[in-house]
Request: fold
Amino acid sequence: MSASNTPLATLPFLPFALPEIGEEEIAEVVDTLRSGWITTGPKARQFELNFTAFLLGDTVDDSLQSIAVNSATAGLHLALEALGIGPGDDVITTTHTFTATAEVVRYLGADVKLADIDPATLNIDPAAIEALITPRTKAIMPVHYAGLAVDMDAIYAIAKKHNLKVVEDAAHALPTTYKRQLIGTMQSDAVVFSFYANKTMTTGEGGMLVTRDPDLAARAKVMRLHGINRDAFDRFQAKVPSWYYEIVAPGFKYNLTDIAAALGLHQLKRVSGFQARREQIAARFDEGLADLPVILPPRPQHAGDLHSWHLYVIRLSDAATINRDQLIERLFADGIGVSVHYIPLHLHPYWQARYDLQPEQFPHSQKAYERMVTLPLYTKMTDDDVERVIQAVRKAFAS
Ligand SMILES: *Cc1c(COP(=O)(O)O)cnc(C)c1O
Reply:
């Protein structure tokens, strides 16, 4: 029976996102649980090595390091801390992101400068970055929104001109390429991926900090675990009495457990296959929605580049006769879970009040927000689920 012959409202609710966890992941977690070592240990280490190998592919580059952490938020915090960001410093990022990108700057007592987006890509607008630069500016944090690469050449040109650090929030961007180079392998000071439950691969909670800077890596590893100069597993494995350690800084508790890494080892093997399926669903959505009064998600700027398709975001065009909230209500009524990415930071009470922000400062983000809906797109969706979403969106515009 095809989905289109079934009354939409009688089908079970289609969640906005679901992880895809296989038997290999489950077996690896069980193996960890039986092993006697459940916190950070051999599996977290192996996951780091495999992650670097995934990013490098056939390239030989001994300088690239992956540091497993218990969230991308933690990884972003560690990266900025290691770069010495602190009170009196400004960090520039996009208003059109999740609060985690910006909150880590405040953890360090530094200030956030929010930039508007380019309406064509929904990514941070390089011209808006330039307008915010002052002598206080120390770093730029681009976010590869939805999994579409930021124009990194423009970011690096600005960073070079003003001597700024670059920390990529790559929470959406595995695997994404920019000019055929995987995000994670370019010349940024640090790149941080997320393995939160709804991301393109998951460890439940988790993240990866990737860097080529040996000093940044060393500092992040120490700060990841209380400021201890040796990690617990090193001490556990030592052949000499291993009770001694030194605290060299007031560190954090940001290490990834082996239980989580067990999931990551197998999710990583599947992440390219996941991307291919996501790409297929995105292409089908593009086809099925092409004639509606919507702006479809932007495609990569350069031919041959990969979009991770973490999110599939449509925007109502000027021709639409319903508004964003009506579209969401109608989709929910037909059993389709949708979301909005994001309520821009400038509209949230904390950020608005802290920096006295007005929507008029961010016209493109504001307009996109008012018109955007994120449709469900994940690998566990069947072809029928995909058709059902298309039919529900079409019906919402027809009624
Ligand atoms: C999910 C997300 C984060 C935070 O990731 P966690 O692993 O949950 O800490 C940061 N930035 C963006 C853009 C995200 O979508």
